[in-house]
């Protein structure tokens, strides 16, 4: 760390200090986050994971030991069949069962819940995020919370009072119970509590006709309702910090009632709160259709390298909505990140306050600790050009190796950006960024060239074979050719693009010719009958 984080104004550092102030100055802290895996865990849901992760890092930078737990609320019921699910009819029979009991519609995982959980668990390490995952189907299934379910039942009237205080209509009656029971016969949550013996036995009836007594210290089929389940787990895990989305953070929302319930039932201070806002997606081409209109974290990683994904979230205060772009804005976002990186390594001078901020944003963006020396900064636009020329990232990388002396880490970053450039060209890039090098100029184009244009192209071919140039030298040569042949530069450039790309325009010509290789361009020009 370059700066004193105790004074940092960076948002996660401020939250870390707030946690210490509110929860007491301790050695160990627990930060929590979680979701119901009812469908794709998308980039908006990811904001909660990374927000917690960055606060965890800020606490660690203050010398604290932190446990980061991520809860899969997969003991929640299967409430709705998502539109993209292949077997709509066949899955109706699983509605109201725990998500952990519903089979995987795609057949690749042990359950519906696992299908969506695995995707996140596999993607997070790429971003350097490694929480401890807790599956509530296991916790409830093994009756680990039995005593706390009993406590909630004992405080049933208190809980009803708290919840009713925030309700204007549909007040909860004395018949209300803070639990849900999965029927032992049909496994569905279509049950009604009839009685409680004051201990661990609940009597219930089910819509399937089943009547039973369940011992929730043994059967593992009883769970607390969400508004009671959440504060119970704060108590059980000793949670000091948990952010929540806008939907939960509204006045009288589950966050407010959870705060009161944890105090009233479990005599514990609520965790420090932080509300985070939504993410907007701005797409270039078509957005992934297979999953409906949501964007997965992995799809963002297809276009942005991991440190930039982190940069996007670290660089925006959680309370602020922001946009993730898939259109040509991608180019600028890479440049913004590289600028921040240069500020961190001191090769870009900015005023002190901004510097402190950007340095901290950069530290938070790194998947591991920052490198000792500044990594290579392959421009996204440049990589797009290389992919246009060489198609495969591996081939483009070979060319990069010929042009620049780079170490292993730099080559890794180059390859990472080249791979993203390829995905971007295939899925999102506007037409003007796409071109294809013609191995042989098309006759229909050559036939339209006049003598002056042909002479200029011939001159260019000769010059390219003479020696290797820098982009600046080559640029000067273009103008010398135009003067010698007395052709307008505009016409000259147009002719070169037409012959090489079949289009009247293209990427900046000198760097393009050098990236492609002068020899290769000369070979193409030789096909013209001068
Ligand atoms: Zn699967
Ligand atoms: Zn039943």
List the helices and strands and how they pair.
Elements: H1 11-23, E1 28-35, H2 43-61, E2 65-72, H3 112-123, E3 132-135, H4 136-141, H5 146-154, H6 156-165, E4 179-181, E5 191-196, E6 201-206, E7 211-215, E8 222-224, H7 226-237, E9 241-245, H8 246-249, H9 254-266, E10 272-276, E11 279-282, H10 297-301, H11 306-314, E12 322-325, H12 329-344, H13 352-365, H14 380-390, H15 393-403, H16 408-427, H17 443-446, H18 451-466, H19 471-485, H20 489-501, H21 509-516, H22 518-526
Parallel strand pairs: 1-2, 2-3, 9-10, 11-12
Antiparallel strand pairs: 4-8, 5-6, 6-7
Helix pairs in contact: 1-2, 6-9, 7-9, 11-13, 12-13, 14-16, 15-16, 18-19, 18-20, 18-22, 19-21
One zinc ion binds next to loops.
Runs in which pLDDT lies below 50 for 5 or more consecutive residues are: 285-291
What ligands are attached or bound here?
A: zinc ion
Number of strands: 12
In percent terms, what proportion of residues is strand? 5-15%
> How does CATH name the architecture of the largest domain?
3-Layer(aba) Sandwich
Description of the molecule:
This protein has helices spanning 11-23, 43-61, 112-123, 136-141, 146-154, 156-165, 226-237, 246-249, 254-266, 297-301, 306-314, 329-344, 352-365, 380-390, 393-403, 408-427, 443-446, 451-466, 471-485, 489-501, 509-516, 518-526, and strands spanning 28-35, 65-72, 132-135, 179-181, 191-196, 201-206, 211-215, 222-224, 241-245, 272-276, 279-282, 322-325. The protein is mainly alpha-helical and 530 residues long. The strands form 5 sheets. A 3-stranded parallel beta sheet has the order 1-2-3. A 3-stranded antiparallel beta sheet has the order 5-6-7, with no helix packed on it. A two-stranded antiparallel sheet has the order 4-8. One zinc ion is lined by residues 104, 106, 108-109, 115.
């Amino acid at each position: 760390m370059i700066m004193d984080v105790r004074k940092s104004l960076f948002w996660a550092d401020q939250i870390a200090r707030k946690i210490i102030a509110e929860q007491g100055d301790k050695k160990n802290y627990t930060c929590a986050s979680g979701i119901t895996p009812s469908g794709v865990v998308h980039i908006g849901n990811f904001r909660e994971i990374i927000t917690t992760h960055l606060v965890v890092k800020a606490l660690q930078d203050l010398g604290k030991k932190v446990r980061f737990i991520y809860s899969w609320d997969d003991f929640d019921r299967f409430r709705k069949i998502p539109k993209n699910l292949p077997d709509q009819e066949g899955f109706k029979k699983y509605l109201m069962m725990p998500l952990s009991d519903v089979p995987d519609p795609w057949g690749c995982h042990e359950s519906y819940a696992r299908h969506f959980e695995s995707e996140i668990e596999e993607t997070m390490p790429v971003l350097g995020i490694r929480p401890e995952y807790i599956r509530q189907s296991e916790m409830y299934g093994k009756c680990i919370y039995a005593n706390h379910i009993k406590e909630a039942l004992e405080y049933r009237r208190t809980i009803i009072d708290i919840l009713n205080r925030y309700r204007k209509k549909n007040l909860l009656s004395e018949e209300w119970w803070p639990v849900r029971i999965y029927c032992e016969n049909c496994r569905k949550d279509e049950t009604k509590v009839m009685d409680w013996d004051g201990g661990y036995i609940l009597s219930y009836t089910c819509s399937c006709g089943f009547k039973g007594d369940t011992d929730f210290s043994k059967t593992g089929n009883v769970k607390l309702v969400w508004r009671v389940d959440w504060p119970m787990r704060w108590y059980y895990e000793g949670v000091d910090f948990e952010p929540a989305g806008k939907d939960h953070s509204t006045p009288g929302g589950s966050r407010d009632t959870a705060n009161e319930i944890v105090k009233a039932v479990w005599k514990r201070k609520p965790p420090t709160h932080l509300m985070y806002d939504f993410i907007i997606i701005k797409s270039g081409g078509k957005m992934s259709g297979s999953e409906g209109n949501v964007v997965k974290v992995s799809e963002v990683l297809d276009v942005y390298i991991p440190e930039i994904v982190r940069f996007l979230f670290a660089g925006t205060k959680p309370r602020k909505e922001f946009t993730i772009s898939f259109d040509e804005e991608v180019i600028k976002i890479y440049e913004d990140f590289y600028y921040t990186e240069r500020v961190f390594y001191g090769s870009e001078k900015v005023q002190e306050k901004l510097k402190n901020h950007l340095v901290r944003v950069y530290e938070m963006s790194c998947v591991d600790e920052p490198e000792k020396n500044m990594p290579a900064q392959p421009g996204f636009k440049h990589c797009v050009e290389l992919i246009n020329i060489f198609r495969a990232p591996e081939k483009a990388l070979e060319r990069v190796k010929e042009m620049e002396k780079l170490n292993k880490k730099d080559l890794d970053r180059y390859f990472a950006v080249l791979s993203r450039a390829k995905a971007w060209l295939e899925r999102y890039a506007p037409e003007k960024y796409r071109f294809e090098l013609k191995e042989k100029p098309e006759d229909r184009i050559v036939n339209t060239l006049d003598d002056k244009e042909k002479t200029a192209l011939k001159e260019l071919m000769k010059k390219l074979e003479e020696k290797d140039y820098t982009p600046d030298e080559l640029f000067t040569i273009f103008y010398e050719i135009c003067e010698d042949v007395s052709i307008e530069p505009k016409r000259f450039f147009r002719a070169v693009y037409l012959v090489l790309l079949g289009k009247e325009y293209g990427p900046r010509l000198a760097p393009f010719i050098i990236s492609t290789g002068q020899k290769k361009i000369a070979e193409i020009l030789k096909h013209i009958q001068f």
